[in-house]
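tool_call: predict_structure(chain=1)
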Amino acid sequence: MIPITDKIFFIEGKSHGRYIFSNSLYIEDDQKAIIDTGTGKSALRKLKKNNVGNNDILIINSHVHEDHICGNYIFRNSKIAIHRLEVPILENIDRLAELYGIDDPKYKEMNEQFFAIFNLKNYKVDIKIENNHIFDLGEIKLQTIHAPGHCAGHCMFWEPSNKILFLADIDLSSFGPWYGDISSSVTDFIDSINKAIKLNPDIAISSHKGVYKERIREKLKIFLDKIYEREGKILNFLERKHTLEEIVKQAFIYGKFPEPEEMFAIAERIMVKLHINRLLNTKKIEENPKYSFIAI
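tool_result:
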């Protein structure tokens, strides 16, 4: 654990927090709490043995994606808090396949492998949170910032006295924003990044990149610009008419599909469709009767 303050600690996930893992924030106050549990089993078991024991710890999940909830089971008797929009998914984890577009029976084997890798389970939610919900942990008052876009119920967490912001999956990665969940929204993601910029934190913690103490607003703006860069590539490609599938094959977002290629192509399709809808709504492109698109 790396101390951020005398009560707030950064726990780096395995493989430096890169997916399939994520980083966590641990708060040791009158009420102990952990934000996300994707650091890897060994880190969480060490935390439980050395810091938590059999005492109560509050699990705060930033959202229901596999790399953020997969270690919830280690703290078996703990209460779980999550945004109300994520509750139906955490309590029925099979719905995650639907959100990722892999619930079709033809993806059965891929779906089963995915769920097995993360040991995904259903969890009962004890605290359904909304925007501005305050976790009163003692000295630490942690404010919920609803930050949709990555998914519908994605949240950041703000500790105002030290100006610390847990960004969750506004993760400042070089890849840029990921919105391959059916509940994702490009426009909401833009708004959520701007919320983080407006907060102007002194310290920002990313779920996949670590702790930042310098040039945070600049890094957030670079992260935001990835969205506009992708949209520009799609718009340029549509100087000639192309179908959705032709756009997806260009892999403007992933560059090249990792393995399993089919699963990442599905995510690319979801993200491209969001951009297409934005471009249609802003009348930068039009759709012709043969289901292809062209810039206006």
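agent: The chain has nine helices and 16 strands. Proceeding to next step.
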